[in-house]
Design goal:
homodimer, 308 residues, alpha+beta, Formiminotransferase-cyclodeaminase, Chain B, domain 1, Alpha-Beta Plaits, 2 domains, 7-stranded mixed sheet, 4-stranded antiparallel sheet, 38% helix, 23% strand
Chain lengths: 308, 308
């Protein structure tokens, strides 16, 4: 029994009763467990994190998308965050290293169902992309709800992967994807030098020739400065490697690391990766972790229970 | 819902059918999952590892103790390992840092039940000890079945914490305890110098004034030498601290670390500890680990299912 994570983003962050209803639709599917929900009023957007066996997760995601389509009207939605759908993005995330193919299959199945049953156009992105150009979410979502409304039927390059060649009048479109678990990881420096944090961010991020699968910006904090990173695939660049890259460059400028922090959740595999690298423990596997072993046994038992 | 581990040791390692029956009694409790079982013929002893919510774990442990008492007669038991009971030791082990009190409570509840229902004398040890002198298992078990048979009713210091002041005629006594999870952790050196490995082992182990909660010996391997450690409380001395202590002393002798390894299972909390120390991420908690979060939710759901 393999559990996957799903992290849908919905274009509603100000009406808790609407988010409640979306979350309830997700949580109603047996075997699915809602891990987290966060609403941002400025972005007018909510992020729900849930987990379950792949098939149950796809079922739950469909329930969430359908509820969002019923309750959210993008014509009256205002918020700082780019968006083109009531359910805006729905990424499936493998927890163990081997399960990406299963997540891609779940994304494709969900996309077909959204198109068929809800008549909402669907775009597949990242590992689920059917066109190489659509791997990046920014490309898929370019122009947002208002921009895509015009382009979708006119520009062949903007036609959806599934569903009608026009936006849903109120729910817009949905981007459905599969991606490695993202780790939001920040390294704070013992310094007020924002320029230094920005220089280090530029040096370590992939876009500017730094570490693969690292996005980074420099930020000012109340008590110093921060290199704020997203590790988009911790198997490629681990927290330990990102930390070392920042610490080394800071040290070259005579600055120490104050602390580092993980924002939100992280997969156990990312911790195994840190131990492997920092302790030269290359043989360490997730199968040795008690919680992982117990979770596998419990989920297998839950599966049996559900079948009987 | 909090899951704890329990690692009972039974005085039977030669008759698999007896161990089968003991394990079956443990596994029969809903919510309990048997993770591992190992039998040693020379020691004539078996170790069962299982996990579950504390109450279910105590129920399962009672089932295992009762089965052992029914099936094992210490009067005819021979084996190299010290022992005084058919079920010899029953330690509860917290997986998360805050759950030691819950494990102590489970141990006390189990001990009272063993005394009342099976009429076997019970001694509490380690974190569950009611007398400071009984923290160490060796003190509690001194003399084994044969020695305690005489002493238990005669020496006030050997009176049990629960139950009758005489050994059960065939099942002896039981030591019930609570302890931190043990991590078997080895650091291999790029060297054939066994004396160096032994010197480092002596320097880092608690017994000789080294790191607290560390046991260590130096060993020769096929491809080098090893400092083989038991970390008896990774919250006190983490794998990262143990690694650093060994690596530092090896470096002083001009020797590099080849690799390190964890033997068997380790708790997720030990990996969180490594990340905290090596990445200066002191704010990182196990509640941020996806698998931990999912396991808590799944077990809570399992609990509901069991009650309905």
């Amino acid at each position: 029994m393999t559990v996957v994570e799903c992290v849908p983003n919905f274009s509603e962050g100000r009406r808790p009763e609407v988010v409640d209803e979306i979350v309830a639709a997700i949580a109603a599917v047996p075997g699915v467990h809602v891990l987290d929900r966060q609403s941002d009023a400025a972005h007018n957007r909510s992020v729900v994190t849930f987990a379950g066996p792949a098939e149950a997760a796809a079922e739950a995601a469909f329930g969430g998308v359908a509820a969002a389509a019923r309750l959210i009207d993008l014509n009256v939605h205002e918020g700082a965050h780019p968006r083109f759908g009531a359910a805006d993005v729905v990424p499936f995330v493998p927890l163990e290293d081997d399960d990406m193919a299963m997540c891609v299959a779940a994304a494709h199945e969900l996309g077909a169902r959204i198109a068929a049953e809800l008549r909402i156009p669907v775009y597949f992105y990242e590992a689920a992309a059917r066109r190489e150009a659509r791997r990046g979410l920014a490309v898929v979502r370019e122009g947002g709800f208002e921009g895509l409304r015009e382009a979708i039927g006119r520009e062949p390059g903007r036609a959806p992967d599934e569903g009608p060649p026009r936006l849903h009048p109120t729910a817009g479109a949905v981007a459905v994807g599969a991606r490695a678990p993202l780790v939001a990881y920040n390294v704070d420096l013992e310094s007020d030098d924002l320029a230094l944090a920005r220089t280090i961010a530029t040096a370590v991020r992939e876009r500017d020739g730094g570490l693969p699968c690292v996005k980074a910006i420099g930020l000012a904090l109340d008590d110093g400065v921060q290199v704020s990173m997203n590790l988009t695939d911790h198997r490629v660049t681990s927290m330990a490697a990102a930390y070392a890259a920042v610490a080394e460059r800071a040290a070259a400028a005579g600055v120490l690391v104050r602390r580092s922090e993980v924002v939100g959740l992280l997969p156990e595999a990312a911790l195994v990766g840190v131990a492997r690298e920092t302790l030269r423990a290359s043989g360490l596997t997730q199968a040795q972790v008690l919680e992982s072993r117990i979770l596998d046994l419990v989920l297998a038992g839950e599966g049996e229970g559900g079948a009987s």
